[in-house]
Amino acid sequence: MTASSTDRIDKEIYLNASIDRVWEALTDYKQFSQWFGVTLESSFEPGQVSKGILTHACSDHANGLEIAFAVQKIQPKHYFSYQWHPYAVDLSVDYDKEAMTLVEFKLEAEGDGTLLKVTESGFDQLPAHRRDEALRMNTGGWEHQLGNICDYVSKNA
After folding, report:
1. Domain that holds residue 96
2. How many CA atoms lie within 13 A of 37 on its CB side?
3. Which CATH number characterizes residue 122's domain?
4. Residue 53 lies in a domain
5. Is a pLDDT exceeding 90 seen at residue 114?
6. CB-CB contact of 157 with 21 (8 Å)
7. Is 41 exposed, middle or buried (0-12, 13-18, 19+ CB in 10 A)?
């Protein structure tokens, strides 16, 4: 099945860091917290939910909001995925009644560095009234987050 252009975000970045270093930054919840801008309470475990508070989001009104990552799969040094409620910033909305999107991180060794691919899919399952904004905000959000992880692995080698 081919996803529509409204259903997914695909981003990639070359990181001048080893696959081990990038994997650690992605899957160690304390390191993830630092570059992602969230204060997570627990480690990432498949089948578990890791919750935290956004500390620096792309959108000022999202700072201080609770965020939850429902971890799906962890395949060491290759693949990490979770589900979440994208752009869930309106405190009056119960997002638990909505579908979640799937975020996938894929790592490939490339020379001395790592190619990191990020895909977020499932936007077409969101309510029509917020689908376009969630896709737009998360598209910009992933551009920002890839810059964050690039800076993080460069400075914290």
Report:
1. 8-31+72-155
2. 20
3. 3.30.530.20
4. no
5. yes
6. yes
7. exposed
pLDDT tens digit sequence for 55-67 = 865 555 565 688 9
Q: What ranges make up the beta strands (E) of the chain? A: 8-15, 38-40, 49-54, 66-75, 79-84, 101-110, 113-121
In a domain, 47, yes or no: no
Number of domains in the chain: 1
Give residue 2's pLDDT: 43
Tokens coding 69:
């990552």
* Dihedral over Cα of 130, 27, 58, 67: its sign: positive
Helix, strand or coil for residue 76? coil
The whole-angstrom separation of Cα 144 and Cα 59 is 11
Partners of 117 in beta bridges: 12, 106
